[in-house]
Amino acid sequence: MVTEAIILAGGLGTRLRSVVPDLPKAMAPIGGQPLLRYLLQYLEANGIRRVVLAVGYRHEAIRGFFGSAHGGLRLVYSVEEEPLGTGGALLQALPSIEDPYAFVLNGDTFLRLDYRDMALTVERNEDVPLVVALRPVADASRYGRAVVDAGRIRGFSARGTPGPGLINAGCYLVARNIFGHYPVPEKFSWEQDFLEVRAAEIQPVAFQCDVPFIDVGIPEALCEAQTLIPEWVNASA
Q1: Domain limits, the chain
Q2: What are phi and psi of 66, to 5 degrees?
């Protein structure tokens, strides 16, 4: 059973400055509460017991609000002293994980994922270093498609080709020692510099999930999220 998660919550939130000034994206208000609170509630409802918050910009606001626990969750902080990119933030946070695997998700998106179901992929095969959640969409041209064969991701196609496809949903199940097998620099992008470059080598397991998703990192979506995210979280309670 996977009971730990890492939330990448160090972003500057530049696209939200017009509506959420001087706050990390994960603290964007949803129904009067920070988005991060809903993420934590949803993770706890899905069996997660310990969360590492990879924080950076205005991390004091996050720590001051949540402290060391939320509900039944234990909270640990991995603080970037300077921007490391999503990959560098993950590299720094992984040593704080106690178990062989942890979920990794972004602090400015919400995916209505069945985390317990996704965890079964590594419980059946402990040699898997990485599982990637994929969502089907009617037009993948904006994102690029995951190339999947026999349940494994062999690569990602370039953006721009219209038509349906499976896209990266931004949630991962990562082996704690993954970077021991694939050395990386101190600062890098998890998706662009690691996942997309090394997919053919790692061949991550593809976990397909046709579930709702919202990116709260843009003002238009933040408005829509005010009703959607509380509904999704309450339905899981």
Answers
A1: 4-130+170-186+213-236
A2: -100, -30
| Distances 104 to 33, 91, 139, 231 between C-alpha atoms, Å | 22, 11, 25, 23
Query: Is this structure's pTM higher than 0.90?
Result: yes
**C-alpha angle with apex 129: 119 to 193, nearest 5 degrees?**
115
Gyration radius from the chain CA atoms: 17
- Chain-centre distance of CA 74, in angstroms? 18
Residue count of the chain, please give it. Answer: 237
pLDDT in tens, 188-220: 999 999 999 999 999 999 999 999 999 887 777
Which one of 3.40.50.300, 3.90.550.10, 3.90.1750.10, 3.40.50.720 gives the CATH number of domain 4-130+170-186+213-236?
3.90.550.10
Per-residue tokens: 43: 């993770």
Residues 35/28, Cβ–Cβ less than 8 Å: yes
Give the whole-angstrom CA distance, residue 108 versus residue 25: 6
> Is-contact 197 108, C-beta < 8 A?
no
Place of tokens 């995951």: 146
Q: Are 80 and 92 in contact (CB under 8 A)?
A: yes
Residue pLDDT, tens place only, 21-33: 577 888 888 988 9
**Sheet strands (E) in 68-164:** 69-70, 73-79, 101-106, 109-111, 130-137, 146-149, 152-156
Q: How far is CA 198 from CA 23, 111, 142, 154, 236, in A?
A: 33, 24, 21, 9, 35
